[in-house]
Write a structure and sequence with these properties.
InterPro entries: Acyl_CoA_acyltransferase, GNAT_dom. This is GNAT family N-acetyltransferase. It comes from Chryseobacterium edaphi. The chain is of the alpha+beta class and about 170 residues long. It has one domain: Gcn5-related N-acetyltransferase (GNAT) (Aminopeptidase), CATH 3.40.630. It contains 4 helices and 8 strands; from the N terminus they run E-H-H-E-E-E-E-H-E-H-E-E. Strands 1-2-3-5-6-8-7-4 form an 8-stranded mixed beta sheet. The radius of gyration is 15 Å and the shape is globular. The two termini are about 30 Å apart.
Length: about 170
């Protein structure tokens, strides 16, 4: 990717839903091909994305105005996180990262890592200093990003019918 590409991070709009759903379906298939059980049981689905957008949870990273990455950011609300086999680093306000999906058109360009930088900037701008996230044990790509971005493994949570590895990063 050249420096000429203009990257933006913004809230998703309902007009983005079809493109986002296509990206989510690509990610579901990619996880299946990789042998992951994550996202193989009908979640997330089109209604999940519509709900994200209507609740202002949905965000997109665009490259030259084309949607490249989708993510849901949820402030202070993940019931599954109230019970953790382990311990969170903080107990205050937090943002949860859910449903990270990269378009096949942009795969392998480092945009998921860039997304995490932009999320940190956004969360700081909202005066929140904790980001929490979970992922499947077999989601090697996400586990690598969380490690590279300095997230701390905190334990296990039970979410979407399975045990997930839970991580937190405290923003200074």
């Amino acid at each position: 990717m050249t420096q000429d590409n203009k990257i933006k991070f913004r809230k998703a709009e309902i007009s983005d839903k079809e493109v986002i759903w296509e990206i989510i379906q690509q990610s579901i298939e990619r996880r299946r091909i990789d042998g992951s059980s994550q996202w193989q049981n009908g979640y997330p689905n089109e209604q999940t994305i519509e709900s994200d957008i209507s609740k202002n949870f949905g965000f997109v990273l665009t490259v030259n105005d084309e949607i490249a990455v989708y993510v849901a950011l949820i402030f202070n609300d993940e019931p599954a996180y109230s019970t953790i086999d382990g311990a969170w680093l903080t107990n205050g306000e937090f943002v949860v990262i859910h449903r990270v999906a990269v378009s096949e058109n942009f795969a392998g360009q480092g945009l998921a890592k860039r997304l995490f930088d932009l999320i940190e900037d956004y969360v700081r701008s909202e005066n929140v200093h904790s980001i929490k996230v979970d992922t499947n044990y077999d989601n090697a790509a996400m586990l690598k990003i969380l490690n590279d971005k300095g997230y701390t493994y905190c334990g296990e949570v039970f979410l979407a019918g399975g045990v997930r590895k839970a991580f937190e990063k405290v923003l200074i």
